[in-house]
Amino acid sequence: MSEFGTVISTFEGPCTRKFSFVIKKDQVVKRGQFVQVPVEGGKLIGRIADVFKTNRYFMRPESVEKYESSKPMEEIFPVNNWEYLVADVVPLGVYGKEGMFEEVSFPPSPGVRVHEPDHKILHKFLGLDNKGLEIGELPYHNVKVRVNLTKLLQKHFAILAISGAGKSYLASVLLEELLKRTREEGQIGTVIVDTHGEYVSFAEDPKFSDRIGVFPANEIRIGLPNLTSHQIAEFLPKLSTVQVRELTRFLREMKSGKKHFGISELIQVIEEDEKAKSATKDVLVSVLYDLMETGLFGASDYPLAKEIAQQGKISIIDLSPFISSRKKQMVVAHIARRLFNGRRDSKVPPFLLVLEEAHQFVPETAKAENAISRGIVQTIAREGRKFHASLCLISQRPIQLSTTALSQCNTHVILRVTNPYDLDHIGRSAEGITRDLQNQISGLRVGTGLIIGESVNFPIFVKIRKRESRESKRGIPLEEAAKEFSERAKQRKEDAKSFM
Ligand SMILES: Nc1ncnc2c1ncn2[C@@H]1O[C@H](COP(=O)(O)OP(=O)(O)OP(=O)(O)O)[C@@H](O)[C@H]1O
Ligand SMILES: [Mg+2]
Q: What is the β-pairing status of strands 297-298 and 144-147?
């Protein structure tokens, strides 16, 4: 392993919290890089917090000013020979003699050599897993970042960043990794709520298409006979308790009669009823008409939970045909509930539910009419781990995302975030984000992210790997989209001409 430099003695160190080393002339060492030095009891692993330059010729302002006023200093002194690079290191832990990791209780001695860490040690030290999901690589080190599936999914995770920072790209990389898993390694069912229809490109990619199911939102049906009155009431947050009670009675009557019925039959029964007050009936009929207009309700469920969650496969719920956010939420609420209940009864395999634009489905503020999916998603966030029902929340507005849900995500992958309110919110909801890391998040470039939380032993930056699947056309640059549009218009004109 290459030698980076030598530990020096400074006013503040070496101590257990920090030390500095002077960098060898031929070495390039960057902030964020990991280093290894020998200490009592093992090898200390640290992270370079900063790199700075010193030159004793320029330490005293009065002499610099004096000399420079007559001649440039480099003409008088060999100043270039006296410039040194010094790195400040924050010790993270000690890799003990028996392969155990310990806290840093002893500083390295001045004079000891600093090295690039042994990759095997670094891998173990960071809590990575050789058989895990390969997200990318550690910057500056040739070490693959593979995170353990259980550690990442069991307690949910979130992908947070501004628009265009690469959230969907990273999610696609993760989906590829999930698809690569063999039966022996343990396969889960993955369901992605695709608000913009951008994951549909997976289904068009011959490498993956056989394991992808696409469910356009306008084909989804919520089977009325399968709903309890409580579940219907979830879609109708404005109903009073009395109205819900009456609705329950009607539903019970319907269910005891025939097995297949839709909203129109339910409405008919309510209209013909003689026991309920006419005001109650009017309200129920009016809200049910409203539900009927969504076109989402039918006599049976389509697709069934077991069709959506299948081991080793991915189901894409394509919400792009819907404009109404209420309808999108209804679909999400329904699917999340079916999946979660299916998990509780062990009727569906362990699953991961990926929510793009999660702030739309689990918002922080619960305005009754637009938070239909909030309850069930929060329930999965709180209780899902017991049933192996996992969530991946993706959002560009973390501040609008439910704190309850976000705080249950024990791993955060943070790409570039610039808004100070969002940064602050992330800082408060993810444990272990120091001020220094927060500053680095706003400077991240597309393709790099920070993983923090239970999946890794320390916050680590990662260069996201290239995706193997076909990218969605919706992600192409504006110029390309414009060119493609005029190309198609030209083609249409030519087609029309040849037709005449
Ligand atoms: N790791 C990466 N390597 C190469 N290109 C990337 C990477 N991540 C993102 N990109 C590119 O950056 C663009 C934006 O990425 P992406 O669509 O994933 O952003 P996003 O965060 O999902 O944005 P939005 O919030 O608008 O959905 C895409 O064109 C994508 O190809
Ligand atoms: Mg996206």
A: unpaired
Which of residues 283, 298, 313 is at a domain's end?
298
Number of domains within the chain: 3
User: Helices (H) and strands (E) in the chain — how many of each?
Assistant: 18, 20
Q: Is 224 left (phi over 0), alpha (psi -120 to 50) or beta?
A: alpha
Q: Whose CA is nearest to atom 15 of ligand 1?
A: 166
Q: Are residues 316 and 372 in the same domain?
A: yes
CA of 54 to the centre of ligand 2 (A): 44
Burial class (CB in 10 A: 0-12, 13-18, 19+), 251: buried
Ligand 1: residue of 395, 401, 446 to mutate (most ligand atoms within 8 A of CB) is 446
Q: Is 201 strand, coil or helix?
A: helix
Ligand 1 neighbours by CB, cut-off 6 Å: 161, 163-169, 396, 446-447, 464, 471, 475
Chain mean pLDDT for the chain: 91
Distance (angstroms) between ligand 2 centre and the Cα of 194 equals: 9
Q: Mind listing the pLDDT tens digit for each residue in 194-240?
A: 999 999 999 989 999 999 999 999 999 999 888 888 888 888 888 88
DSSP 179-197: HH--TTT---EEEEEETTS
Element (H, E) at 283: helix 278-293
Q: Note whether 314 and 284 are same-domain residues.
A: no
Answer for the pair 450, 460: CB distance below 8 angstroms, yes or no. yes
Confidence (pTM)? 0.89
DSSP β-bridge partners for residue 88: 20, 50
Ramachandran area for residue 238 (φ above 0: left; ψ -120 to 50: alpha; else beta)? alpha
Pair 159, 275 in one domain:
no
Residue 369: which pLDDT band, with cuts at 50, 70 and 90?
A: low
pLDDT over threshold 60, residue 11: yes
Domain region containing 430: 146-220+302-469
End-to-end CA distance of the chain: 74
Residues 277, 420, single domain; the answer is no
